[in-house]
Amino acid sequence: MIIEQQNQQLLNEQRIKIFKALADETRLAIVKTLYQSGREMNCGEVGDICEASKSNASYHFRTLREAGLIKVRKEGQIRFMCIQTDTFQQFLPGFLDTL
C-alpha cells in the first residue's frame, strides 16, 4: 500500500512538471516544431524556428528535458533533441496529434 502511494506521488509530480512545461508558449512551440519535423534537430535549428535567443532557448530546453518531454543527445559540441514520445503516450495520449 505504501509503495503504491509513493508511486502515485511520483506520477503526480511528473504530471505537474509536464503541465508546467507545456504552459509556456515558447516551450509549446518547441514541442510542436520537434513533433512536426519528425526528426532529431539540433538546438540552433529549433531556437531559430521558434525565434528564441540562445540563452532563452537553453532554459526552455532544460525545462522540457526535466519534464521528460524531450530527449537530448550530445555529439561533440552539438546537442540534438527529439520528442520523448513515451512520456506523451503515457501522460497525454493524443496530445501531439492536436498540434
UniProtKB/TrEMBL annotation:
Quick check: keyword Oxidoreductase in the entry? no
**Which CDD domains does this UniProt record tie to the protein?**
HTH_ARSR (cd00090)
Acetylation: is it a keyword of this entry?
Answer: no
Enumerate the spans annotated as HTH arsR-type domain: 7-99
User: Which key words are in the record?
Assistant: DNA-binding, Transcription, Transcription regulation
Q: Name one Pfam family in it.
A: HTH_20
Protein name as it appears in the record: Helix-turn-helix transcriptional regulator
